[in-house]
């Protein structure tokens, strides 16, 4: 009687696990793709929704769905790796008995790293190859590094390194394939809400100009502009649509999801001049109406100050104070500043030595900046310019500034020059997230030229901000005006969720050196 070879039995069981895992991943991919296809052609189109609002911040659904798919695929790959591993399931983590905890942790970490590198917007803006490159950086560099740091807290026993390696490698391949399939199968235009603008004058033209740079990544598609009564047309003539006699029928015919009200003048003396009754009929039929300011806020993440009225700030659902939230934010700032100091003090020491060796003068540089409610405070940085950089007074920084030293250029690009501001966080002058503080000399001039400029001081300034993510480095009054629109958006809608989103996405700014002069 022959005895079964144990090695042969083990090999057969491993092959069966591999085949079962591959089959499950294929089934999951097909199901997800079919779901996306149905959403693109039915649900989103009929509902007219392409965004949700989380803690007062708008998230576009196509990116959210793709992010959920990626997270599920990464979790599926991690499960697959755990099944084919020669190790026992309990050896994936020596300190966590439930094998799903490392799998979920790995999925969340890689998803956050994907968000931090702007992978989803790169897929639309820069093409598939750029998306793959960013995915590799987010998974192999950021993801592996972050998982390594997590392991340090558990003496290297939280997640097995072999499990991390194969999970990251296979996740990169599977996620890249799924995104390629998504681009090929899903018509992104079908995911967008069809919008018509009521108005074709200067305001409508300015709105279209604001939308133009981001037209490929927005959740809306502008069908056209309908001039109001006796309004001079200033938009592209190809976008002009004659005012319909029946707005409800027009909305159904062209599958309009939203009407943006943006005429140069709203006449109230005649009921025929402004079709209020027909807009109400559209609203009752499920076609929403919005003013240009709210539309711009939702789609572009900024508040257009050319449309802003003081009453809107008072009566809107933002600009609110919460004592509980402020306490939680302060505790979070202190905890995060402590962690940063714990891990980054060697880099701070090396930076100080490099600054001192390259040029004479103090290692630290300090300036007076304007903080919460206009109160001045002293901010600290590692010196990145010559000692006599401002001998003739305060001036705007500019691109390729000759005053910046070689070490200064490097620490500016890597944001190492900002690390001494951890002291400002501990002292309560600054938060981790908030509008960047400006110098009093500039604030006086900017407040004189830009309406509502001082409203940005209603929240505590920060090391990183929404404006830094959305707009390049500002070195002029026009730049300050544009950045103010994003600062006002943050001031109105700031929340813990938005702070976390900004901190995650700031990683891309640091790694790619964006917005540095």
What structural category do the secondary elements indicate? alpha/beta
Principal-axes shape call: globular
Please tally the helical runs, counting DSSP H or I stretches of 4 or more residues.
Answer: 18
| Strand tally | 10
Strand fraction: 5-15%
**Termini gap:** 81 Å
Largest sheet properties: 4 strands, parallel
Radius of gyration: 27 Å
Q: Specify the helix fraction band.
A: 40-55%
**What is the H/E string?**
HEEHHHHHEHEHEHEHHHEEHHEHEHHH
Average of per-residue pLDDT values? 80
Low-confidence stretches: 36-49, 86-90
Sequence of strands across the biggest β-sheet: 4-3-5-6
Structural commentary:
With 517 residues, the chain is α/β, with parallel strands linked by helices. Helix content is 54%, strand content 9%. It has helices at residues 6-47, 61-84, 100-116, 119-125, 128-152, 161-185, 202-211, 247-253, 276-284, 292-300, 310-315, 323-358, 406-413, 422-427, 440-449, 466-470, 477-493, 496-512; strands spanning 51-54, 57-60, 193-198, 220-226, 258-261, 288-291, 364-370, 376-382, 431-433, 462-464. The strands form 4 sheets. A 4-stranded parallel β-sheet has the order 4-3-5-6, with helices on both faces. A two-stranded antiparallel ribbon has the order 1-2. A hairpin with a 5-residue loop joins strand 7 and strand 8. Helix 2 (61-84) crosses helix 6, helix 3 packs across helix 18 and helix 7 runs parallel beside helix 10. Residues 36-49 and 86-90 have low confidence and may be disordered.
């Amino acid at each position: 009687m022959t005895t079964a070879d144990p090695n042969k039995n083990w090999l057969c069981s491993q092959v069966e696990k591999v085949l079962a895992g591959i089959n499950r991943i294929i089934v999951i991919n097909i199901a997800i793709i079919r779901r996306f296809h149905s959403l693109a052609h039915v649900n989103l189109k009929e509902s007219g929704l392409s965004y949700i609002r989380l803690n007062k911040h708008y998230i576009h659904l196509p990116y959210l769905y793709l992010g959920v798919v990626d997270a599920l695929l990464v979790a599926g790959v991690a499960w697959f790796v755990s099944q084919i591993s020669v190790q026992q399931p309990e050896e994936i983590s020596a300190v966590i008995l439930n094998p799903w905890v490392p799998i979920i942790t790995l999925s969340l970490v890689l998803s956050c790293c994907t968000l931090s590198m702007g992978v989803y917007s790169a897929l639309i803006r820069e093409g598939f190859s750029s998306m793959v490159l960013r995915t590799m950086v987010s998974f192999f560099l950021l993801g592996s590094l972050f998982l390594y740091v997590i392991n340090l807290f558990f003496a290297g026993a939280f997640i097995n390194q072999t499990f991390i390696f194969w999970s990251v490698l296979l996740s990169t391949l599977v996620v890249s394939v799924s995104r390629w399939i998504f681009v090929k199968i899903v018509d992104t235009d079908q995911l967008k809400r069809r919008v018509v603008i009521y108005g074709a004058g200067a305001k409508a033209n300015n709105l279209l100009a604001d939308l133009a740079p981001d037209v490929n990544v927005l959740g809306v598609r502008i069908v056209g502009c309908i001039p109001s009564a006796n309004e001079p047309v200033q938009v592209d003539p190809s976008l002009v649509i004659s005012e319909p006699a029946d707005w409800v029928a027009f909305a159904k015919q062209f599958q309009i999801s939203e009407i943006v009200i943006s005429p140069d003048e709203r006449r109230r003396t005649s009921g025929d001049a402004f079709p209020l009754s027909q807009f109400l009929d559209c609203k009752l039929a499920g076609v929403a109406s919005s003013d240009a300011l709210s539309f711009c806020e939702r789609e572009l993440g900024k508040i257009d100050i050319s449309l802003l009225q003081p009453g809107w700030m008072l009566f809107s659902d933002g600009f609110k104070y919460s004592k509980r939230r402020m306490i939680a934010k302060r505790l979070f700032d202190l905890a995060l500043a402590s962690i940063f100091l714990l891990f980054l003090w060697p880099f701070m020491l090396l930076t100080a030595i490099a600054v001192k060796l390259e040029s004479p003068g103090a290692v630290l540089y300090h300036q007076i900046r304007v903080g919460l409610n206009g109160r001045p405070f002293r901010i600290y940085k590692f010196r990145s310019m010559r000692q006599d950089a401002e001998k003739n007074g305060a001036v705007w920084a500019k691109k390729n500034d000759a005053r910046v030293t070689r070490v200064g250029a490097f620490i500016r690009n890597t944001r190492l020059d900002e690390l001494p501001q951890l002291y400002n966080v501990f002292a309560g002058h600054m938060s981790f997230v908030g509008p960047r503080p400006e110098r009093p000399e500039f604030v006086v001039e900017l407040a004189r030229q830009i309406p509502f400029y001082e409203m940005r001081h209603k929240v505590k300034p920060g090391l990183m901000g929404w404006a830094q993510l959305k707009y390049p480095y500002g070195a002029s009054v026009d730049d300050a005006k544009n950045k103010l629109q994003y600062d006002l958006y943050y001031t109105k809608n700031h929340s813990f969720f938005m702070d976390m989103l900004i901190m995650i996405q700031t990683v891309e700014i640091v790694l790619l050196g964006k917005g540095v002069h």
